[in-house]
Amino acid sequence: MSGGVVYLVGAGPGDPGLMTRRSLELIASADAILYDRLVPAGALEGARADAELRYVGKEPGAPAVGQQEINRQLVELGRGGKRVVRLKGGDPFVFGRGGEEAEALAEAGVRFEVVPGVTAGLAAPAYAGIPVTHRDVASAVAFVTGHEDRDKPESAVDWNALGRFPGTLVLYMGVRNLGMAAERLTAAGRDPGEATAVVERGTDPGQRVVTGTLSDIAARAEEAEVRPPAVTVIGRVAELRDTIAWLKRRPLHGQVVAVTRARAQASGLAARLRDLGAEVVEAPAIRIERRAVDLPRPESYELICFTSPNGVRLYFEALDRDARALAGVTVAAIGPGTASELTRHGIRSDVVAERFVAEGLLDALGGLNLRGRRALVARAAEARDALPEGLRERGTEVDVVALYDTVAEPLDHAAREGLARATYVTFTSSSTVRFLLESGGRVPESARIASIGPVTSATAREHGLPVHVEAERHDVEGLIQALTDDAAARRVAPA
Ligand code: SAH
Q1: Which residues does the annotation mark as catalytic?
Q2: Which of 151, 152, 213, 434 is exposed most, by the fewest CB atoms within 10 A?
């Protein structure tokens, strides 16, 4: 037998955070990945650059790759010695035809492994605040699939038996046949007044929940225009949602927050926003481009000023020595983000400007006698000159080293679309404002604009953008604080 292995992997219900560690490891090492439509956004981001990615899902209106053909491809790749990931939504063995694929592989003598995933029938109710079992309410749960195929009305589902099932029912099916299912269940003895909830796009930022009773849920779902994928939970546990629904209590629930900073820097901010319940739209307006520089020896200065985390990072890249090179130098930083990037390089700043602007650093340096001393300002090429000028006014001999350029990043289609839906647009520097507008980014009228500090706010206003929220602390944490405060104030405010 060859060295090929096929992994039948569950990718979970949609929230990337619910992918298992094992699934991520396998995606990262696979030669080939065959994936479905319902895999989480970004699930394939960790794949090798040279991995072969094959889409084998069904697309409405397009010919689907048949199950036989998928089985054949899996066998062929496995026999060819490949490391293959067959990535499926939810769990591979819950209504995912993973069983058939495993059988085909076993029959062909291809080695395979199964990696369970979080199934939609558990995750979507959980995100809707519905425990599928509960000590006082339901001690059994049944997962049911209904045929959505109109041509096959004779489904394999025994609705009669399910009508008498003593516990929660979770239906994996669209709402088209929900009326039929409800009728059959009530005819078989289920209480028409039983609590029922439909969860659309469970665990996704766009999750929606429609609640009702078994008798009216079909009409309510239709009225709400529920679309697949959706699961329906039938049982008294659905009543607990009123108490348990936790998702909508998150501070930024329902907010669509656009992040305009450089993609490389966006992840920290984006992750924190998601944690707080926001849907994050990445619309990077800028990119950091390093310059080739001949860094002057740090020993020739008494003071080195860093004005941004990027500046710190690129300075140490260019320096090609460690923190000891700055042993005798006074180190000054604008803003806590810059200071914390310095600690990452083993340097505790001697002076940190509390205000995230050049003037703030000049104030903070006020106590030092800088006359006749030499200072280096390490920064972006197109920065304001307030800091070097202010230092020169105090009699300091100043060199400036431009470590990088901030350049425009063209907005792609997804970024434009996301921006159009944003309820908050965040700006973390003047350049994000300028370049977003220059590349044709449109900030919706209804969106609230959040700025990291006064300089950025001023640039926004100069460009005709109102600033609704300004961070008091001029870093990511401060911006997030300001956003959540604003969202909370607006939530309780009278309409
Ligand atoms: N193997 C998958 C199920 C595949 S069948 C799993 O374990 O979750 C496809 C059905 O799953 C859809 O029709 C829908 O009923 C349900 N489903 C999948 N993802 C869902 C989601 N994010 N929210 C609600 N239902 C979902």
Answers
A1: 36, 58, 173
A2: 151
